[in-house]
Design goal:
2 copies of one chain form a homodimer.
Chain A lengths: L3 H14 L8 H8 L3 H13 L3 E4 L3 E4 L1 H23 L8 H8 L5 H10 L25 E2 L9 E6 L4 H9 L7 E8 L4 E6 L4 E5 H4 L2 E5 L15
Chain A binds a DNA duplex (30 and 30 nucleotides) through helix 3.
DNA sequence: GTTCATATTTTGATTAGTCAAAATAAATCC
DNA sequence: GGATTTATTTTGACTAATCAAAATATGAAC
């Protein structure tokens, strides 16, 4: 059984290697895990001995297939737990990340499967982050962001890629959650400001940096009245 | 924040001190925690430094009110989690103890309260073990057991005080769970054997030792048709 | 092609929790 | 009351995970 520490290292390597060639630098991993770089070097060598990662000295670290499988399981636990906390226990979506951070290391595969069934086999968590499938498939679909999509085009938010409480609370207060329909009214690159227009005509100003954290897809007519995800009964 | 290890020490001290003067011997604690006695001595001294227990060298250890409060919170988490796993996730009651053993250290007080509400503020877990109240009250009602109650008297099972998988599976297969009505048909002390008669007239043989683990109360007429606890909706 | 800045690795030390085995205190038994 | 058994404590050592700070590569700049 992998320790919580090992599970965390693998999870962070997985997240940092998303959309790259797979090699993660020691420094990036260290700051992601909030430990000093020397600690990471030591730990990564131990993980390499255990066959969970491949370590290229002075270049970076990469998951082996075994390590990737374990990391995906941890990520699946994390995101299903978040979904449970929001949909069933009605917790604030800004609070659930920290909770899930603990619970992901404590729930068994059996409980995981039962939670999955209870929730109706969701494919994304409350932030829109994709939930790895039971057999280790992780959707890596590429979306536009509010910083890059065409102005005036009706879009729907599919994902908010930021876990900090502050950002999520702000997003919630301004109705910027997966499922929300809106369009970019204006984008001022020199001022770094994006103005959004929501359904009722209400406008919301947003920094370009924040807009880049919000992923969107083109609004589909057929899904115009799609309700927000319901908690399971 | 107390570590899982500290929480476990406190929980075991609490359970071992139930119904005694409160002093728990080092040896009893060591075997309960499955560590060697020397480890317990070391750890108990650290807990005493932290104000969670009072250590009387060569005599035993006792919770302080702060330690007792923490232990009760852990026990409350354990038993509410067990209830959730059985009532909501429909897990086998023999499997939930080990799961809860992990989860009790990972769930926050906020999640605890929400689980409690979701489950309808239960007062006992699926084994009939009392759930400490939010403010630290733990029912210590004394019951008769199938080894001690009067033969022929109609009784109802209220609690099964044994967590081993094997025992719980046996009990389930023979319909010996909280809520079951039955009576002791015969008790043979020399053979160490108890024979139970269940509702449909079916009889079940049981060792005296096992019978002592099953707590009962006199059958109340008004509760004859009391249904088994329902999972929350 | 040296020099410099930066990232990485190494080294030595620390903390929490544990075990094995020796030392000590307490209780019991003629 | 001295000898023996039993529980407890002490001592020394170990593992996992970490940090601080020194040593070492690597790549960029001049």
């Amino acid at each position: 059984m992998a320790s919580s520490t090992v599970e965390n290292y693998l999870k962070h390597i997985l997240l940092l290697s998303e959309g790259t060639d797979g090699l993660v630098s020691m420094g990036a991993l260290a700051s992601s895990l909030a430990v000093v770089p020397g600690t990471v070097t030591t730990m990564v060598k131990a993980l390499a001995d255990g066959g969970l990662v491949a370590h290229r000295p002075r270049q970076g670290v990469q998951l082996t297939s075994e390590g990737r499988h374990l990391a995906l399981t941890v990520l699946r636990k994390h995101r299903l737990v978040e979904t449970f906390l929001v949909n069933v226990l009605k917790m604030d979506w800004a609070a659930v990340h920290d909770e899930a951070e603990q619970l992901e290391h404590a729930i068994s595969d059996d409980v995981l499967d039962r939670l999955d069934a209870l929730l109706g086999h969701p494919t994304a968590d409350p932030h829109g982050d994709p939930i790895p499938s039971r057999h280790g498939k992780l959707s890596s679909q590429v979306y536009a962001t509010l910083a890059t999509c065409a102005a005036g085009r009706p879009v729907r938010i599919v994902r908010v890629t930021e876990q900090s409480k502050e950002f999520l609370q702000f997003a919630e207060q301004n109705g910027l959650q997966p499922g929300t329909s809106l369009s970019v009214a204006d984008r001022n690159l020199t001022a770094g400001l994006v103005t959004l227009r929501k359904a009722a005509g209400r406008t919301v100003p947003l920094s370009l940096a924040a807009a880049g954290k919000i992923l969107v897809e083109p609004e589909k007519q057929s899904a115009r009245f799609r309700p927000k995800p319901e908690p399971c009964s």
